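User: Hi! Is it possible to get a structure for several chains at once, not just one? Here's what I have:
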Amino acid sequence: MSDRQDVTFTVNGEERVIRVEPRRSLADALREDCGLTGTHFGCEHGVCGACTVLVDDKPVRSCLMFALQAEGTRVRTVEGLADGDKLHPLQQAFWDHHGLQCGFCTPGFLMLAVSILERDPDIAEPELREALSSNLCRCTGYQNILKSVLAAAAEMRK
Amino acid sequence: MSLIGQSVKRLEDRPLLTGSGRFAADITPPDVLYMRVVRSPVAFGRLTGIRTAEALPHPGAVAVWTA
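Assistant: Yes, the chains can be modeled jointly so their relative placement is included. Here is the combined structure:
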Protein backbone atom coordinates (compact mmCIF):
# COMPACT_ATOMS: atom_id res chain seq x y z
CA MET A 1 0.00 0.00 0.00
CA SER A 2 1.49 3.28 -1.04
CA ASP A 3 -1.22 5.55 0.37
CA ARG A 4 0.16 5.46 3.89
CA GLN A 5 0.26 8.69 5.81
CA ASP A 6 2.30 10.01 8.70
CA VAL A 7 0.71 10.52 12.08
CA THR A 8 2.50 12.60 14.68
CA PHE A 9 1.22 12.32 18.23
CA THR A 10 2.46 11.78 21.74
CA VAL A 11 2.01 8.45 23.47
CA ASN A 12 2.58 8.43 27.22
CA GLY A 13 4.54 11.67 26.92
CA GLU A 14 6.79 10.49 24.11
CA GLU A 15 6.44 12.00 20.65
CA ARG A 16 5.92 9.39 17.93
CA VAL A 17 5.71 9.50 14.17
CA ILE A 18 4.15 6.46 12.56
CA ARG A 19 3.23 5.75 8.97
CA VAL A 20 -0.13 4.05 8.60
CA GLU A 21 -2.85 3.17 6.17
CA PRO A 22 -5.85 5.51 6.54
CA ARG A 23 -8.05 2.61 7.67
CA ARG A 24 -5.75 1.58 10.54
CA SER A 25 -7.43 1.83 13.92
CA LEU A 26 -5.74 3.66 16.76
CA ALA A 27 -5.70 0.37 18.71
CA ASP A 28 -3.84 -1.39 15.91
CA ALA A 29 -1.45 1.55 15.61
CA LEU A 30 -0.68 1.41 19.34
CA ARG A 31 -0.24 -2.38 19.32
CA GLU A 32 1.49 -2.92 15.98
CA ASP A 33 3.25 0.37 15.17
CA CYS A 34 4.11 1.50 18.71
CA GLY A 35 4.61 -1.97 20.20
CA LEU A 36 2.26 -1.23 23.10
CA THR A 37 0.28 -4.45 23.45
CA GLY A 38 -1.22 -3.51 26.81
CA THR A 39 -4.21 -2.06 24.93
CA HIS A 40 -6.39 -5.04 24.07
CA PHE A 41 -8.91 -5.77 21.36
CA GLY A 42 -11.99 -7.41 22.82
CA CYS A 43 -14.99 -7.02 20.53
CA GLU A 44 -13.49 -4.71 17.88
CA HIS A 45 -16.78 -2.87 17.52
CA GLY A 46 -16.98 -0.51 20.45
CA VAL A 47 -19.05 -2.56 22.86
CA CYS A 48 -16.62 -3.99 25.40
CA GLY A 49 -14.23 -1.14 26.19
CA ALA A 50 -11.14 -3.35 26.49
CA CYS A 51 -9.33 -1.01 24.09
CA THR A 52 -10.10 2.17 26.07
CA VAL A 53 -7.27 4.72 26.01
CA LEU A 54 -7.22 8.42 26.81
CA VAL A 55 -6.99 10.88 23.92
CA ASP A 56 -6.42 14.39 25.26
CA ASP A 57 -7.60 13.02 28.61
CA LYS A 58 -10.93 11.75 27.29
CA PRO A 59 -11.64 7.99 27.23
CA VAL A 60 -12.08 6.61 23.72
CA ARG A 61 -12.61 3.18 22.19
CA SER A 62 -9.35 2.96 20.29
CA CYS A 63 -10.82 0.23 18.03
CA LEU A 64 -13.35 2.76 16.72
CA MET A 65 -10.94 5.63 16.16
CA PHE A 66 -8.64 5.83 13.17
CA ALA A 67 -4.97 6.36 13.91
CA LEU A 68 -5.06 9.34 11.54
CA GLN A 69 -7.62 11.02 13.81
CA ALA A 70 -5.03 11.00 16.59
CA GLU A 71 -2.84 13.49 14.70
CA GLY A 72 -1.58 16.12 17.14
CA THR A 73 -3.23 14.53 20.18
CA ARG A 74 -1.88 13.30 23.48
CA VAL A 75 -2.60 9.60 23.95
CA ARG A 76 -2.27 7.79 27.28
CA THR A 77 -2.27 4.01 27.60
CA VAL A 78 -1.95 1.55 30.46
CA GLU A 79 1.82 1.39 29.91
CA GLY A 80 2.10 5.01 31.01
CA LEU A 81 0.18 4.68 34.29
CA ALA A 82 2.86 3.50 36.69
CA ASP A 83 5.70 5.77 37.74
CA GLY A 84 8.64 3.43 37.28
CA ASP A 85 8.19 0.66 39.84
CA LYS A 86 5.52 2.59 41.70
CA LEU A 87 2.06 1.58 40.58
CA HIS A 88 -0.66 4.19 40.03
CA PRO A 89 -3.13 4.17 42.96
CA LEU A 90 -5.72 2.57 40.66
CA GLN A 91 -3.35 -0.24 39.68
CA GLN A 92 -2.48 -0.83 43.33
CA ALA A 93 -6.15 -0.80 44.35
CA PHE A 94 -7.09 -3.31 41.61
CA TRP A 95 -4.34 -5.56 42.95
CA ASP A 96 -5.32 -5.11 46.61
CA HIS A 97 -9.07 -5.56 46.05
CA HIS A 98 -9.00 -8.34 43.45
CA GLY A 99 -10.32 -6.07 40.73
CA LEU A 100 -9.02 -8.47 38.09
CA GLN A 101 -8.81 -12.16 37.34
CA CYS A 102 -7.65 -12.92 33.80
CA GLY A 103 -6.59 -9.31 33.30
CA PHE A 104 -7.73 -8.95 29.71
CA CYS A 105 -10.25 -6.14 30.30
CA THR A 106 -8.11 -4.53 33.00
CA PRO A 107 -6.17 -1.99 30.91
CA GLY A 108 -9.46 -0.66 29.53
CA PHE A 109 -11.02 -0.48 32.99
CA LEU A 110 -7.93 1.25 34.40
CA MET A 111 -7.92 3.92 31.70
CA LEU A 112 -11.68 4.43 32.03
CA ALA A 113 -11.30 4.76 35.81
CA VAL A 114 -8.40 7.22 35.43
CA SER A 115 -10.58 9.46 33.29
CA ILE A 116 -13.53 9.18 35.69
CA LEU A 117 -11.46 10.12 38.75
CA GLU A 118 -9.58 12.90 36.98
CA ARG A 119 -12.91 14.44 35.99
CA ASP A 120 -14.63 13.84 39.32
CA PRO A 121 -12.34 12.83 42.20
CA ASP A 122 -15.30 12.73 44.62
CA ILE A 123 -17.67 10.74 42.43
CA ALA A 124 -20.46 9.04 44.38
CA GLU A 125 -20.92 5.29 44.24
CA PRO A 126 -24.11 5.24 42.12
CA GLU A 127 -22.56 7.52 39.49
CA LEU A 128 -19.34 5.53 39.52
CA ARG A 129 -21.30 2.30 39.04
CA GLU A 130 -23.06 3.89 36.06
CA ALA A 131 -19.79 5.19 34.56
CA LEU A 132 -18.04 1.83 34.96
CA SER A 133 -20.89 0.13 33.12
CA SER A 134 -19.23 1.41 29.90
CA ASN A 135 -16.89 -1.57 29.97
CA LEU A 136 -17.37 -5.33 30.11
CA CYS A 137 -15.62 -7.86 32.35
CA ARG A 138 -16.43 -11.56 32.30
CA CYS A 139 -14.42 -12.61 35.37
CA THR A 140 -15.02 -10.35 38.32
CA GLY A 141 -18.75 -9.65 38.38
CA TYR A 142 -17.80 -5.96 38.64
CA GLN A 143 -18.17 -5.61 42.44
CA ASN A 144 -14.44 -5.80 43.05
CA ILE A 145 -13.76 -3.34 40.23
CA LEU A 146 -16.15 -0.90 41.88
CA LYS A 147 -14.46 -1.53 45.24
CA SER A 148 -11.03 -1.00 43.71
CA VAL A 149 -11.93 2.32 42.11
CA LEU A 150 -13.59 3.61 45.30
CA ALA A 151 -10.47 2.64 47.28
CA ALA A 152 -8.21 4.35 44.74
CA ALA A 153 -10.38 7.47 44.83
CA ALA A 154 -10.02 7.62 48.62
CA GLU A 155 -6.25 7.10 48.33
CA MET A 156 -5.90 9.80 45.66
CA ARG A 157 -7.80 12.34 47.80
CA LYS A 158 -5.22 12.01 50.60
CA MET B 1 -2.44 -24.14 57.57
CA SER B 2 -1.82 -20.46 58.09
CA LEU B 3 -3.11 -19.60 54.61
CA ILE B 4 -6.66 -20.76 55.26
CA GLY B 5 -8.96 -17.79 55.67
CA GLN B 6 -6.25 -15.44 54.44
CA SER B 7 -6.46 -13.27 51.35
CA VAL B 8 -3.49 -14.22 49.20
CA LYS B 9 -1.78 -11.64 47.00
CA ARG B 10 -1.74 -12.80 43.38
CA LEU B 11 1.69 -13.08 41.74
CA GLU B 12 0.45 -12.49 38.19
CA ASP B 13 -1.21 -9.14 38.79
CA ARG B 14 1.68 -6.72 38.33
CA PRO B 15 2.27 -7.53 34.65
CA LEU B 16 -1.48 -7.63 34.00
CA LEU B 17 -1.92 -4.21 35.62
CA THR B 18 0.94 -2.55 33.78
CA GLY B 19 0.13 -3.77 30.28
CA SER B 20 3.06 -6.15 30.15
CA GLY B 21 1.00 -9.33 30.36
CA ARG B 22 1.24 -11.59 27.34
CA PHE B 23 -1.94 -12.85 25.70
CA ALA B 24 -2.00 -14.92 22.53
CA ALA B 25 -2.74 -11.88 20.36
CA ASP B 26 0.33 -10.09 21.76
CA ILE B 27 2.74 -12.65 20.37
CA THR B 28 3.88 -12.76 16.75
CA PRO B 29 5.93 -15.91 16.10
CA PRO B 30 8.42 -15.79 13.21
CA ASP B 31 6.92 -16.75 9.82
CA VAL B 32 3.41 -16.47 11.22
CA LEU B 33 0.57 -17.03 8.75
CA TYR B 34 -2.85 -15.37 8.89
CA MET B 35 -6.04 -17.29 8.26
CA ARG B 36 -9.45 -16.10 7.24
CA VAL B 37 -12.63 -18.17 7.28
CA VAL B 38 -14.99 -17.27 4.44
CA ARG B 39 -18.56 -18.20 5.22
CA SER B 40 -21.56 -18.24 2.94
CA PRO B 41 -23.27 -14.90 2.48
CA VAL B 42 -26.52 -16.84 2.02
CA ALA B 43 -28.37 -17.79 5.20
CA PHE B 44 -30.24 -20.77 3.76
CA GLY B 45 -29.21 -22.32 0.44
CA ARG B 46 -27.75 -25.31 -1.31
CA LEU B 47 -23.98 -25.29 -1.87
CA THR B 48 -23.27 -26.42 -5.43
CA GLY B 49 -19.56 -25.63 -5.54
CA ILE B 50 -16.70 -23.50 -4.19
CA ARG B 51 -14.38 -21.76 -6.67
CA THR B 52 -10.92 -21.27 -5.22
CA ALA B 53 -8.90 -20.84 -8.43
CA GLU B 54 -8.69 -17.05 -8.15
CA ALA B 55 -7.73 -17.03 -4.48
CA LEU B 56 -4.52 -19.04 -4.52
CA PRO B 57 -2.52 -16.93 -7.02
CA HIS B 58 -2.80 -13.88 -4.71
CA PRO B 59 0.65 -12.67 -3.59
CA GLY B 60 1.48 -14.23 -0.23
CA ALA B 61 -1.36 -16.77 -0.31
CA VAL B 62 -0.11 -20.11 1.01
CA ALA B 63 -3.15 -22.33 0.96
CA VAL B 64 -6.86 -22.37 0.30
CA TRP B 65 -8.82 -25.10 2.00
CA THR B 66 -12.45 -25.97 1.61
CA ALA B 67 -14.59 -28.22 3.76
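Residues 40 and 47 of chain B are 9 Å apart (CA to CA). Chain B is about 10% helix and 0% strand.

User: Great, thank you!
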